[in-house]
Amino acid sequence: MTGLNLPRVKLCQLPTDLDLASNLSKKLGDVNIYFKRDDNTGLAIGGNKGRKLEFLLADALKKEADVIITTGSIQSNHTRMTCAACRKLGLDVILMLKGKKPAQFQGNLLLEKLMNADMRFFDVSSYNEIGIEADKLMDELRAKGKNPYFIPVGGSIGLGACGYVDCALELFSQADSQNLRIDYIVNAVGSGGTSAGLEVGVRLAKRDAKVVGISVDSEKSVFKQDISRIAQDSISLLGADLEILPDEIIVFDEYIGESGYGKPSRQGVEAIKFTAETEGIILDPVYSGKAMAGLIDLVKKGFFEKGSNIIFIHTGGTPALFDMLVENSD
Ligand SMILES: Cc1ncc(COP(=O)(O)O)c(C=O)c1O
């Protein structure tokens, strides 16, 4: 059991560090930027999904599941981390990956291969189609006497989001011990669970910090609805007396990039280089690089008041760098 009073299984290295990025802050001027290092949560190279999996897999174990099924894109960090968590817990795992099977395995796929994952590729246009296939697979497994447990894309349901409720509480406790007032929390939004959990956590802790999501996929109107819905589900699970309306959610959708989800953007790559050069911190091309591009642009546009303390949740994703960015030597 946890402070949140929900079953939880230990999978991550927590708490993650909260560090002032003094060089980056100086270069941007006017604001103080801190990194919450959720890229270092462990589980086969870290990232934000580990916190969600601590709650989701505790539920699976409680229900005596013996095989976990989940889904994600070809370079999904969620499937890689779910696979690592299942290996740690001794559970079977099947990864239903959305996209064509590539000729070579790089990045997250390579790590999944190293963990000897059961990877199944579905060249379809939506996760609904994979959901139908997952239902069939679950029926087949049940007929063989197995007890499967399905985790939706990104682990972004109320229970998974509780991992980020807990992260917000961890963050405020660290900030309090550093006498730090948090004004903003900035994070990449892919399926909404991270933002939803943070929104709930800020309210449970009764703080004024604003959560600012940077979309890497859908329009902000879609994410405002999704985040509010997931947050309400977490609130019900936690038995809290809160309401989070779509209009209260701040999401920017200007930084998805020219080529859309899963493809590096010019601004994102510049942000990756800038962060690497100033802080020696490595971001990724699909999520954290685009979120940092958003943060930098919003600082330049004066969105954050002078002197604001901004927490950037480094949600990880580093393995995708090795599939997507090729640099020559000069
Ligand atoms: C590295 C990384 N950062 C951010 C996100 C976004 O988190 P969420 O899906 O909870 O919005 C994801 C997953 O989608 C991710 O893998």
State mean pLDDT (0 to 100 scale).
96
The CATH topology of the largest domain comes to Rossmann fold
**Which strands sit side by side, in order, in the main sheet?**
1-2-10-7-8-9
Radius of gyration, whole Å = 19 Å
Query: Domains counted in the coordinates: how many?
Result: 2
CATH first level of the largest domain: Alpha Beta
Largest sheet: 6 strands, mixed
Provide an overview of this structure.
This protein has 330 residues and is α/β, with parallel strands linked by helices. It has two domains: 18-47 and 157-324, Rossmann fold (3-Layer(aba) Sandwich); 49-155, Rossmann fold (3-Layer(aba) Sandwich), CATH 3.40.50. Helix content is 43%, strand content 15%. It has a six-stranded mixed β-sheet, with helices on both faces. The protein has a four-stranded parallel β-sheet with strand order 5-4-3-6, sandwiched between helices. α8 links the parallel β8 and β9. α1 (22-28) crosses α9 (266-279), α6 crosses α7 and α9 (266-279) crosses α10 (288-300). It is globular and about 60 Å long.
Topology, please?
Blueprint (H helix, E strand, L loop, with lengths): L17 E3 L1 H7 L3 E5 L12 H14 L4 E7 L3 H13 L2 E7 L8 H8 L3 E5 L4 H17 L4 E4 L6 H20 L6 E6 L3 H12 L5 E6 L4 H19 L11 E3 L13 H14 L8 H13 L8 E5 L7 H4 L6
Parallel strand pairs: 2-10, 3-4, 3-6, 4-5, 7-8, 7-10, 8-9
Antiparallel strand pairs: 1-2
The structure holds pyridoxal-5'-phosphate.
